[in-house]
Amino acid sequence: MIQFLITIHTIISILLIIVVLMQSGQGGLNSMMSGTANSMMGSTGANDFITKLTTGLGIAFIGLAMLIGALSGEP
Fold first, then answer.
1. What is the 3 state secondary structure string of the chain?
2. What's the gap between Cα 38 and its chain centre?
3. In the Cβ-directed half-sphere of 61, how many Cα atoms lie within 13 Å?
4. What are phi and psi of 28, to 5 degrees?
């Protein structure tokens, strides 16, 4: 069970890194994908979606880290 949770945690961490790099502000991947992101959801819709996705992935990352720590700790 813990191996499965660690695998999910690793996938979430990789997705979190990608989503943080896609956020606008300092360039990042969003500058390379600006045409695609803007045409799909509009210029502000993409930023709102990416912000909410970052928040959700961050909460899932922290929650899974705490769950893995609680399950693998010695009582």
1. CHHHHHHHHHHHHHHHHHHHHHCCCCCHHHHHCHHHHHHHHCHHHHHHHHHHHHHHHHHHHHHHHHHHHHHHCCC
2. 20
3. 14
4. 70, -155
Packing angle between helix 34-41 and helix 43-72, nearest 10 degrees? 100
For residue 59, the model assigns a pLDDT of: 97
Query: First CA to last CA across the chain, in angstroms?
Result: 18
| pLDDT, tens only, 5-53 | 999 999 999 999 999 998 866 555 555 555 555 555 555 667 788 889 9
Token match 């069970």: residue? 1
pTM of the full structure: 0.70
